[in-house]
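ok trying this again, last paste got cut off
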Amino acid sequence: MARVALITGGTRGIGKAIAQNLAENGCDLFLVYRSNDQAAEACRDTIQSASHRRVTLFKCDVSSESSVGKLSGDLARQTDRLDVLVNNAGVMPRHYPIESIPTDEWNDLIANNLTSIFFLTKALLPLLRKAAPAHIINLSSIAGQTGGTIGVGYAASKGAVISMTQALAKELAPGIQVNCIAPGPVDTEFLGDELKRKLKDLDLLKRIVAPEEVARAVRFLIESPSVTGQCVTLNGGRYMSR
């Protein structure tokens, strides 16, 4: 029986790479996106054509509890279980340092990067509990481990994702494994060429993380029956933990 996976932010960047990897390895997909219908449909068609797996799109604002509630109801009408939930959707800050951060931007960062995981995990828990075992993978960041360089709001939201992952792993065991991934800068369309060059110079390995590397880490976690409550780091040696 094919695994069923739901990926938020699943039609661009890291999320798209995760979707492609899971589909290539036999998963049926539900991809959640926020606004760009054309890009989402193109992503769906590309993955379906390459993998011959079922790929379904859901348009949802994951920072809204009512929008996630609707998603949950729609999903329950299309599947009787959920094997994998990848909480990948998030936003980047527009302003820093702290004195220049508007309160509404702070609230938006926390809502999209952290509270969305609470909404989705809570709403989809009945479907996750019907899989044995199920997996929740949360996307954090090196900023959540080091404080980062792009402001307190982003670092706080991503650091909280790590703590939330650990707490959920304890609460939802043994039936659901919960882990997170904390990449360094990832080579997506959001990074310009000049910034990429600067970031490579700061990396011990003189490279930037590829989206496909994050996807392989997700695949590793859902194939690892003994791993839960862990944060997998992919950062080229920028941050070393013990």
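PB: full thing came through this time. Helices lie at 13-24, 37-51, 65-76, 103-128, 143-146, 152-172, 193-201, 211-222.
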